[in-house]
Amino acid sequence: HAIMKLNLTNPLAFFDLETTGINTVNDRIVELSIVKVMPDGESKIKTLKINPTIPIPLATSLLHGIYDKDVAEAPTFNSIAKTLAAFLEGSDLAGFNSLKFDVPFLVEEFLRADIDFDVSHRKLIDAQKIFHMMEKRTLSAAYQFYCNKELIGAHGAEADTLATYEVLKAQVEKYEGKEVVNNLGKKL
User: Fold this and answer.
1) Which residues contact 115 (CB under 8 A, 6 or more apart)?
2) pLDDT tens for residues 140-152?
3) pLDDT in tens, 89-107
4) Angle, nearest 10°, between helix axes 157-174 and 139-147?
5) Which parts of the chain register pLDDT below 50?
6) What pLDDT, on a 0 to 100 scale, did the predictor assign at position 137?
7) Distance of CA 50 to the CA centre of its chain
């Protein structure tokens, strides 16, 4: 089974951001990792902590494990923006949920650093979008996944309601003892 190589014209920069929160205007990047894959298959990895210049909320630190003390000595985005833009020059961009989150966040940080990071001429590839397109997340798909049956009469109210009931029972069985099941009925 040969390893499939990506057929690239331009370098493809896979990247992921850890941030102080999810608001592109008020929040800042605290960590950035880029895997730049060249058309010949060679890859270059750049991972850096970034001083966000604002405090990282505790709830966020608990998610990604990066605390104020970890970035206190790190460079600011402003100080590395030019080098970063040069590293990404001519690259298409890829990520997971990157269209909704990472790309707009990165563009915003570059704007604050007075760099016009134009993405209009780049290909933007989001693996999450492909995942959702190819592996459906519909009730029919859940019914198939959890109950191993085909949902007949989908989009009929009664068929959908009964299927949802069966899916939930199967989920409770599958994830018994897991936090998501223990918290059923509590406000999420």
Assistant:
1) 81, 82, 85
2) 999 999 999 999 9
3) 999 999 999 999 999 999 9
4) 40
5) 188
6) 87
7) 19
Amino acid identity of residue 128, one-letter, is: Q
Return the structure tokens found at 95. 């990520």
What burial class does residue 102 get, using C-beta atoms within 10 Å of its C-beta: 0-12 exposed, 13-18 middle, 19+ buried?
Answer: buried
The DSSP result for 54-116, as a single string, is: SPPPHHHHHHH---HHHHTTSPBHHHHHHHHHHHHTT-EEEESSIIIIIHHHHHHHHHHTT--
How is residue 27 written in tokens? 């929040």
Q: Is 124 exposed, middle or buried (0-12, 13-18, 19+ CB in 10 A)?
A: middle
Within 13 A of 21's CA, how many CA atoms are on the CB side? 11
